């Protein structure tokens, strides 16, 4: 028996060349990133945009995303860990850059040396000052208040003291209070009253700081949902993650309705395609059985690639048709029931056909939101968990239009 050579038939212009990254990849559209940054910047103006690129830019790749975001007008970058910030600095990115989640093991000295701004909720202050002394360089600090989220940030009760100590060290030239910030808990649910309460508390902490003589360059509170829906939370800077990746933070509103474009497409190719009789069990547990004689398509992505194991029924689009995943998702693979269809619209075997799990949704295709629903989670988690085993491929890398050779080679007369 011979098998048709199919791979070439299904490749589209934007697909990577044959090889591991063609077999499976997360394709990241950097023009979508730039578009989303411009969209968010317009909504936030006159406040500036901090592009949040923690967790490897929510799975999209921190360095290329940071570069694209800065090209499109983001003025700041934000990450959780100092180690993430140092990776960006090592790549030559010198934009203002804030890291806000530390442990006593964090390398504050390296942060000060690299000119990384450090979020400070209280206990970090002494370490930061020690690092500044050691580096003989003032630290750049953003004081963080807990206005209701209950994670890090100084409580209102501890705020006076934190501000007082920071002021003292600032006068000694050991640090500069560059920012004051807090984080919102429920901005993705605009009807809830707690955002107003947090906003009131934030104004209060700003007043306390000001009365103590601490006037920061930037005050920041808003995340993506607040940047898009609550201008009164914008202050000087909005910290935007999800939105620059093109996804909606709101339950009832799509990316398109918000003017955003999802930047990540997760795709692979069908790795096996075969006819089976009625009653064929599918995958571990045999939780799915074919109703009639059918054709099964094997999709070579699984939970080791970051596709949630619980997401049975999640969508996979092959040759223009979207199929739900049949049976359990395994470590490396999952199965779709092609319902007796074994050839493409063009009459080719579906072996090697592209299989898209999610993309920008523009053409009615599956989205990360669909996978979030299937997995009982949010779109943040779907994209962020795509594992390092999946090669990232970047398209539309530079917005600088290529200068036609004939023109660029022309010498000035
Ligand atoms: C992750 C994070 C953000 C970004 O949140 P999005 O909802 O993705 O915009 C902003 N601020 C802080 C402190 C964060 O941890």
Question: What are the SSEs and their pairings?
Answer:
Elements: H1 7-10, H2 20-23, E1 24-29, H3 30-44, E2 48-52, H4 54-58, H5 62-71, E3 76-79, H6 82-90, E4 97-99, H7 108-113, E5 117-120, H8 124-135, E6 139-144, H9 156-171, E7 175-181, H10 194-211, E8 218-222, H11 224-229, E9 237-240, E10 264-269, E11 272-276, E12 281-282, E13 288-289, E14 294-299, E15 315-318, E16 321-326, E17 334-337, E18 354-358, H12 368-375, H13 379-384, E19 392-395, H14 405-408
Parallel strand pairs: 1-19, 2-3, 2-9, 3-4, 4-5, 5-6, 6-7, 7-8, 8-9
Antiparallel strand pairs: 1-10, 10-18, 11-14, 12-13, 14-17, 15-16, 15-18, 16-17
Helix pairs in contact: 3-5, 9-10
The structure holds pyridoxal-5'-phosphate.
Pyridoxal-5'-phosphate (PLP) binds near residues 52, 100, 239, 241 and 242.
Pick out the low-confidence regions.
1-9, 401-413
Number of strands: 19
Strands in their spatial order, largest beta sheet = 11-14-17-16-15-18-10-1-19
What is the total domain count? 2
Q: What is the overall shape?
A: elongated
Would you tell me the overall average pLDDT? Answer: 92
């Amino acid at each position: 028996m011979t098998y048709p050579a199919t791979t070439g038939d299904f490749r589209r212009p934007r697909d990577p060349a044959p090889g591991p990254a063609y077999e499976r990849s997360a394709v990241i559209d950097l023009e979508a990133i730039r578009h989303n940054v411009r969209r968010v910047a317009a909504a936030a103006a006159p406040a500036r945009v901090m592009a949040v690129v923690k967790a490897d830019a929510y799975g999209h790749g921190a360095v290329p995303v940071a570069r694209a975001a800065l090209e499109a007008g983001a003025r700041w970058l934000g990450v959780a860990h100092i180690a993430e910030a140092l990776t960006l600095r090592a790549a030559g990115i010198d934009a203002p850059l804030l890291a806000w989640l530390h442990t006593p093991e964090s390398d504050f000295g390296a942060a000060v040396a690299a000119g990384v701004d450090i979020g400070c909720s209280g206990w970090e202050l002494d370490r930061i000052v020690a690092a500044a002394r050691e580096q003989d360089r003032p630290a750049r600090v953003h004081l963080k208040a807990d206005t209701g989220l209950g994670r890090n940030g100084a409580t209102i009760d501890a705020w006076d003291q934190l501000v007082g100590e920071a002021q003292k060290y600032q006068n000694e030239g050991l640090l500069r209070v560059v920012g004051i910030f807090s984080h919102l808990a429920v901005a993705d649910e605009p009807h809830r009253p707690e955002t107003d309460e947090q906003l009131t508390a934030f104004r209060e902490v700003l007043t306390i700081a000001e009365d103590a003589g601490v006037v920061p360059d930037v005050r920041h509170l808003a995340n993506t949902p607040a940047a898009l829906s609550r201008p009164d939370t914008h202050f000087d800077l909005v910290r935007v993650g999800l939105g620059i990746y093109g996804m909606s933070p709101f339950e009832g509103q799509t990316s398109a309705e918000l003017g955003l474009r999802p930047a990540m497409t997760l795709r692979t190719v069908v790795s096996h395609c075969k006819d089976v009789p009625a009653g064929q069990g599918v995958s571990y547990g045999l939780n799915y059985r074919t109703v009639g004689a059918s054709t099964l398509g094997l999709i070579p992505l699984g939970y080791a690639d970051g596709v949630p194991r619980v997401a049975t029924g999640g969508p996979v689009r092959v040759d223009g048709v979207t199929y739900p995943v049949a049976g359990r998702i395994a470590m490396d693979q999952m199965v779709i029931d092609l319902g007796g269809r074994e050839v493409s619209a063009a009459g080719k075997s579906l072996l090697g056909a592209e299989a898209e799990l999610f993309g920008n949704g523009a053409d009615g295709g599956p989205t990360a939101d669909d996978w979030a629903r299937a997995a009982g989670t949010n779109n943040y988690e779907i994209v962020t968990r795509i594992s390092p085993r999946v090669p990232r491929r970047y398209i539309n890398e530079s917005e600088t239009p290529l200068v036609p050779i004939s023109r660029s080679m022309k010498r000035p007369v």
